[in-house]
Amino acid sequence: MRMFRVLMLLILHMNAHCMYLNWTSHDRPNIVMLMSDAFDGRLTFSPGNKVVQLPYINYMREMGAVFLNSYTNSPICCPSRAAMWSGQFVHLTQAWNNYKCLDPNATTWMNHLGKSGYHTHSMGKLDYTSGHHSVSNRVEAWTRDVPFLLRQEGRPVTDLVGDTSTKRVMTKDWNITDAAVQWIRHTAVSLAQPFALYVGLNLPHPYHTDSLGPTAGGSTFRTSPYWLNKVSYDQVSVPKWLRVEDMHPVDYYSTFTKNCSGHFTEEEIRNIRAFYYAMCAETDSMLGEVIDSLRDTGLLSRTVVLFTSDHGDLAMEHRQFYKMSMFEGSSHVPLLIMGPGVKTGFEISLPVSLVDIYPTVLDLAGVPQPGGLSGHSLIPLVSGVSAQSAEPHPGWVLSEYHGCNANASTYMLRIGEWKYITYADGLTVLPQLFNLSKDESELRNVASHFPDVCQDLDKLLRTVVDYPSVSQAVHRYNKQQFLEWKQNLGDRYSQIIANLRWHIDWQKDAKSNERVIEEWLKLTKRQKKNIYNM
């Protein structure tokens, strides 16, 4: 009898959650989420969507809701995905870099859906647990505040393959897409209970640069003439750059370590950007295959579809490519939702972030939310109907970064027209402040002109995270991990560290670089002050 009462209470609670979306626990929607990698969210609405044809993203925008200010909680693959899957900020899960993220047994929103009666299935790129990515990637993160400058990436290049009939450039992602389509057509269509499907893609992340050897990162923007024809080349801009001497010291460190401090012609820059947009068009086509399969099987009308990405790509804005930055190209991600209960043709300007997906999905399924989540449900925003139990979204987002290619822990608070970026302990590195309503390109740091705004935003930030303490914890972790790695290598240390991704610069003066690391390992907290301004 007691078990019966508990079951009835759970059903009533689920019905209460679902009532404002006009469905009950018996006809809960299917949920399909497609998450790409490195997709600039500004391409999903005007004027960004004019540069490349993205028909299925445009379809989702027309048939559902698009968030105009959606952000990653950490602009790098694994920590960002850890935040999305856990619903918690990076400093809470201590997902410091691509090597240290969630434990394999961490509870995700997909786990909750499975326990509540959903048939769950995930395929493709997950990338939210610890222990992955290259040795180079983790060593670069551990040594990020060592006072040397070494290029860690290959120079960004383009690679045109195939011809005007070549549609399938990223074969691995197409195989994942095909598997998702087959699952929908042969498994999902016959299920008696609602299902939740996650599809993870690697595009439009740049490809591994084969010519740089096995340790190289991804600096090749590859596409075919078929996808390049989807790009309006006359709309591809050449972004303005600050002079090197005017760059913020952390931004300059990023530019140098990403191998972007050399000379680039306007044609090179425009081509890199055009190829990146073409890769986004190929990603959109994969999204389309999933949507079409849902429509063909009659499931689309009963399915909520979400599209997002772990981070963006700077595509040569701010003299950088890749992510690892709080500038818009890197931190602004797409977020579109369509399906039953979601307003059509709806645009939401309120800043939101990936941690909001966890409570949103649970609300969609009528599943009670666990405590300790950092995010807020977006259902009241996209449905136009408030849930009595829903805490309103605070209207700000937090993003933080502790990995490679940035020589200080970085924290971004986005609220209203402002983007506030602070570093390390808030004292040793000057902050940045951008008014995005007047400076979309983020070329005018107005922190010195608005000290009161900086003070207010910093105060708000500190109510969310004690960031000086977090920065110090990351610093201790980095040193400890590097020491353990070094000791485990023994006599092989000198050879292995000299042949990581930075090998070209490292080997110019290997002994000096080893000596600098040894001095860094002995460095005290007081002696760190000038490292960031080298």
UniProtKB/TrEMBL annotation:
<dbReference type="InterPro" id="IPR051849">
    <property type="entry name" value="GAG-degrading_sulfatase"/>
</dbReference>
<dbReference type="GO" id="GO:0005764">
    <property type="term" value="C:lysosome"/>
</dbReference>
<keyword id="KW-0458">Lysosome</keyword>
<dbReference type="Pfam" id="PF00884">
    <property type="entry name" value="Sulfatase"/>
</dbReference>
<keyword id="KW-0964">Secreted</keyword>
<dbReference type="GO" id="GO:0046872">
    <property type="term" value="F:metal ion binding"/>
</dbReference>
<dbReference type="GO" id="GO:0004065">
    <property type="term" value="F:arylsulfatase activity"/>
</dbReference>
<feature type="signal peptide">
    <location>
        <begin position="1"/>
        <end position="18"/>
    </location>
</feature>
<dbReference type="InterPro" id="IPR000917">
    <property type="entry name" value="Sulfatase_N"/>
</dbReference>
<keyword id="KW-0106">Calcium</keyword>
<feature type="domain" description="Sulfatase N-terminal">
    <location>
        <begin position="29"/>
        <end position="367"/>
    </location>
</feature>
<keyword id="KW-0325">Glycoprotein</keyword>
<dbReference type="GO" id="GO:0005576">
    <property type="term" value="C:extracellular region"/>
</dbReference>
<dbReference type="InterPro" id="IPR047892">
    <property type="entry name" value="ARSK"/>
</dbReference>
<keyword id="KW-0732">Signal</keyword>
<keyword id="KW-0479">Metal-binding</keyword>
<comment type="function">
    <text>Catalyzes the hydrolysis of pseudosubstrates such as p-nitrocatechol sulfate and p-nitrophenyl sulfate. Catalyzes the hydrolysis of the 2-sulfate groups of the 2-O-sulfo-D-glucuronate residues of chondroitin sulfate, heparin and heparitin sulfate. Acts selectively on 2-sulfoglucuronate and lacks activity against 2-sulfoiduronate.</text>
</comment>
<dbReference type="InterPro" id="IPR017850">
    <property type="entry name" value="Alkaline_phosphatase_core_sf"/>
</dbReference>
<comment type="similarity">
    <text>Belongs to the sulfatase family.</text>
</comment>
<protein>
    <recommendedName>
        <fullName>Arylsulfatase K</fullName>
        <ecNumber>3.1.6.1</ecNumber>
        <ecNumber>3.1.6.18</ecNumber>
    </recommendedName>
</protein>
<dbReference type="GO" id="GO:0015024">
    <property type="term" value="F:glucuronate-2-sulfatase activity"/>
</dbReference>
<keyword id="KW-0378">Hydrolase</keyword>
